[in-house]
Amino acid sequence: MFNKIFGRSSAAPSGPEERLKAIEGSASAEMAAEMLTRPSALEQLTREEARIVVSYMMPHKIAEGVTFIKEGDTKETDFMILVLDGEVTVESIVVSRTEPITVTVLGRGSLIGEMGLLDGEPRNASCTAVSDLRCAILSRASLKKLLDDDPRTAAKFILAISLRIAERMRDGAEKLKLYSQLTQAMQEEINSLAPT
Amino acid sequence: MFNKIFGRSSAAPSGPEERLKAIEGSASAEMAAEMLTRPSALEQLTREEARIVVSYMMPHKIAEGVTFIKEGDTKETDFMILVLDGEVTVESIVVSRTEPITVTVLGRGSLIGEMGLLDGEPRNASCTAVSDLRCAILSRASLKKLLDDDPRTAAKFILAISLRIAERMRDGAEKLKLYSQLTQAMQEEINSLAPT
């Protein structure tokens, strides 16, 4: 399924230099590299390093309506996706309910499935293309290869992924605080309404 | 505050080899290294690599009752702690309430403050030693140094940190699902109790 690389494809390139050459002049590859460079408290990927990461990714198109990550899936967890263009809904079937609820909508520059790539645990939400998607896919095997070929770039990239997970973790923690308040308020309301 | 290294301290060691020599024979350093090696879907730190990471950490003691991380703190976010011995309560002041609630209790082998180390954002909970603590501290500066000295080990260590954050993220997501169910059930109860 994921057998091309960005730009002119020919014989499979091996090291970072050959790979960089292969993506030269690809506008999608450059866009992907730009999306991967973000400020951080530690070390940030330079544009050149981001290009190296991108050279280990594969361009891919997903048609509107396709659910490409399924909640609970334990088998296909060995890839993550960088959205270059298009929108994705993230849905979750809340425990013991049958109707999925939309958790969030993701667009350009979003990373999807990075936790599964790292830990191999079951997917915790389903992702569906709301429009035709252009994206870049990084497989676990390619990340391992990058770790061998260019550990410093791999380290900074993994750091960038961690930062995104940490950001979501902080959002989640804020939501938990709000829910905690909400249930307290609801409990008080129930107490005041209940016949004594 | 954090000016020692594990084992025999002498002149500050510079590279990984000198550092490894400096921690040779330290039981605490060996314990810390053991705690850092954990199975993972990607690459796992070997014991030797974990020892290298530990050689960039500083042993530290925290007395019972000391709150060493404060919720909302934006200044001292440049370190993380590996708990070697003792227990820590993690407390959070829920928004608009004045009483902190205990979120969790952490013990041996727990990593604390790793998100702040990575992203430099304000601390999202307070941590207090419930008993005297023995721990190992890694500063952001030391992590940067490790990234320069031995990028492959740094990459695998950052990966290990990410896995722990991802694990907490998944726990948080489960809790959010439960809260979502709980508030729906409570809303139904309120509706059934409310005068029509």
Topology overview:
Two copies of one chain form a homodimer.
Chain A: H1 16-23, H2 27-36, H3 47-54, E1 58-62, E2 67-69, E3 79-85, E4 88-93, E5 100-106, E6 111-112, H4 114-119, E7 126-129, E8 133-139, H5 140-149, H6 151-193
Antiparallel strand pairs in A: 1-8, 2-7, 3-6, 3-8, 4-5, 4-7
Helix pairs in contact in A: 2-3, 5-6
Architecture overview:
The structure is a homodimer of 196-residue chains. The first copy, chain A, is α+β, with helices and mostly antiparallel strands and 196 residues long. Chain A has a single domain, classed as Jelly Rolls (Sandwich). Chain A has helices at residues 16-23, 27-36, 47-54, 114-119, 140-149, 151-193; strands at 58-62, 67-69, 79-85, 88-93, 100-106, 111-112, 126-129, 133-139. Chain A has a four-stranded antiparallel beta sheet with strand order 1-8-3-6. In chain A, strands 2-7-4-5 form a four-stranded antiparallel beta sheet, with no helix packed on it. In chain A, helix 2 packs across helix 3 (47-54) and helix 5 (140-149) packs across helix 6. The longest helix of chain A has 43 residues, at 151-193. The radius of gyration of chain A is 20 Å and the shape is elongated. Chain A starts with 15 loop residues before the first helix and ends with a helix. At the A-B interface, helix 4, helix 5 and helix 6 of A face helix 4, helix 5 and helix 6 of B.
